[in-house]
Amino acid sequence: MPDDLVTMDKIVALCKRRGLIFPASEIYGGIANTYDYGHYGVLMKKNVADEWWRSMLFERDDVVALDSAIIQHPRTWEASGHLKGFSDPLVDCRKCKKRFRADQLEHAACELKPSKRPGEGADCDLTEARDFNLMFETTMGPVKDDGAVAYLRPETAQGIFLNFKNTLQFARKKPPFGIAQVGKSFRNEITPGNFIFRTREFEQMEMEFFVPPDEADRWYAYWCEERRHWYERLGIRPDSLRLRPHDPDELSHYSSATSDVEYAFPIGWQELEGIANRGDFDLCAHAGVSGQKLVYRDPQSNEEYVPHVIEPAAGLGRAMLAFLCDAYDEDEIGGELRTVLRLHPRIAPIKVAVFPLLRKEGHPEAAREVYETLRRRFVAEYDDGGNIGKRYRRQDEIGTPYGVTIDHQTIEDQTVTLRDRDSLSQERVPIEGLADLLEARLRADWTSPKID
Ligand code: ATP
Prior knowledge:
The protein is an alpha+beta fold. It is built from 13 helices and 23 strands. Strands 3-9-10-16-13-12-11 form a seven-stranded mixed beta sheet, sandwiched between helices. Strands 20-19-21-22-23 form a five-stranded mixed beta sheet, with helices on both faces. The chain has a three-stranded antiparallel beta sheet with strand order 5-4-6.
């Protein structure tokens, strides 16, 4: 695990200060562990999701997209096993009225005496553990009776299995092929926390890859490596990543093998994404409950079989937190501390910022012209507020890789200063060809300057 200066508090403070992520419902005092994404947070989250889509859809031809409903038929959750088994063991403290996960008491603190674990304080009075289902229940339609109960999906995966048949019919794919989706999921977590690491409402990026049964082991190994590399390709330092195979007693009932891609968060090594070999559990379960035939039939041989499924399941917010933690850096410029996000340019919310040096002498007009040309090709920002050092610092904190400054020389010779966020180099380059130059640099391979 790399020795780092980043802490969760610094990330939370930076996200608030620069408008990436704020506590939700703040004017009402907030609502526990719920967050809203501001302008730069929206742009960055979109970039992470776009990179996922790019790797799943546009750089290969065996995966198709889906966007299924959040509320599915309630029997979905009967078939998937969520109604019966998607629960955590919960204990209540009768004294402080706090709830804890019985299996995580060693990581929790007593509300009244934080130096002790729940149950260890003299006054603690814990109940027996009981199962607490994590699905959010709601009702459909105006009448609140038994038949109206529905659930907010706790994962996006089941919507994919429900559409296996539809997809086979239109997509003209045969196993091995995958169905990918990105969307919101909801879990009534007993102990959410650590900023956006664990929230009750979150986004997932999941792909179900349907394969002939005898190819499942090979594809499982393939997706484990592929998914780990995805994070590396987007700039996460290899030392901060590891692939951890689950012990047999950790495996879910449906899985014959699972590995987690873990990241060295400031709170320790934690799961970023799980890759599971789910066998034929899901298609068989939904076929059993729905009465539909969920199989693949080879049109040539007429051979019929239930494909096995390899599932890479990632969290979008959690991935974003990992990118933020890995990019966070501090250095010194002219005796002053600088905070900088050394984000991969593809993930950075803004690619280039354009600054007039002065608010007079033709600088703003020339700067707007450059900005309007650049923004046709990149997400760009125009900033004329405050001294130039402050403006650079603001962009450094949101990870903008390039800054373009327009000054008196620009007016004379049509050149600008191009500043690099990481090396801090400042070169004089002509406006003509600037967009092509930037495009080449933004597309180039990138490795984190935090790697020695
Ligand atoms: P954990 O052990 O952290 O609860 P899990 O193994 O239950 O996670 P999965 O069901 O495999 O998680 O979900 C896939 C991914 O979705 C996780 O790797 C994580 O990135 C993300 N995820 C799951 N639960 C949450 C949550 N409550 N908040 C944010 N992201 C989540």
